[in-house]
Amino acid sequence: xxxxxxxxxxxxxxxxxxxxxxxGLVCWRLQLGLTKELVIVAARxxxxxxxxxxxxxxIFEFGGLxxxxxxxAIMVVIGGQVAGRRAAGLPSSRKVATIGLAIAxxxxxxxxxxxxxxxxxxxxxxxxxxxVISGAMVATGLSLRGIRDSxxxxxxxxxxxxxxxxxxxxxxxxQRQGSVRGALLPAMDSTKVVGLIALPGAMTGLILAxxxxxxxxxxxxxVMYMLLAAPAIAAAVATRLAERSLFDEAHRLRRTTTAAxxx
Length: 263
Prior knowledge:
Layout: H1 10-29, H2 35-85, H3 93-114, H4 122-153, H5 155-163, H6 168-171, H7 173-192, H8 201-208, H9 213-246
Helix pairs in contact: 1-2, 2-3, 2-4, 3-4, 3-9, 4-7, 4-9, 7-9, 8-9
C-alpha cells in the first residue's frame, strides 16, 4: 500500500510563511513595488482558505448535494463577475460571462454525473466543480477581452463588411473565432505537456493521499478532458452573447471602451 503523505500542522503552515518573506525580500531588493501587495495577497489567501475550509466542513457534514450545488452556483456567480470585469467596457460583460460559466458547468458536471464518471457526493462534486468553473472562468475572461479589443481594433474592417451587405454574425466571424482560439490556447498548451513538466494538481493530490499512481492517472485524465471541454463551451457561449450585444437592431457596431479592469 502506498504511504500516505504527512499533512502539515498549523505550526508547519506558520513556518511556510518564510517562503512569503523570501518572495517579499526579492520584490523589495528589486524595487518592484509589490512587497505590500504580496503581503496582502498572502494574508487574504490564508483568510479565504480557512473560511472555505470551515464552510466545506459544514457542507460535507450536514449540507448534502443540495448545498454542494448551491455552492457551485455561488462559484459561477463570483467567476462571472471576475471574468466579466476583465472585459470592462464590453456591454453586459459580467452577465454574458456568468451565463457562459453556468452553461459550461452544467454541461460538464452534468455529463460526468450522468455517466457516473464521478461520485454524486459533496466531497467530489465541489472540488471537481471548482476546477471546471476556474478553468472556464479564465477562458471566458480571455475571450471576452479579445472580443472587446478586436471590436475596437478591427472596427473599420467590420463596418466595411457590413456595408457590403454581410450580416453582423458573418462580418464579425473572424474576430469571434480569433477571440475563442486565443482563450483556449492556455488550456491546450497545458494539456500538451501534462505529466512532462509538472504533475497535475488532481493527480498530485491523490498520490499524496495514498492513491496508487495508475488510479490517480485515470482520474487526472478525466479532469484533463473536462478542463478542455468547459473552457471551450464557456468561451463559445460568452463570445456569442457578447457579439450580439455589440450590434444594435440595425446591425450597426456599437462603440466599446478598453477601460482597465479593476483587480
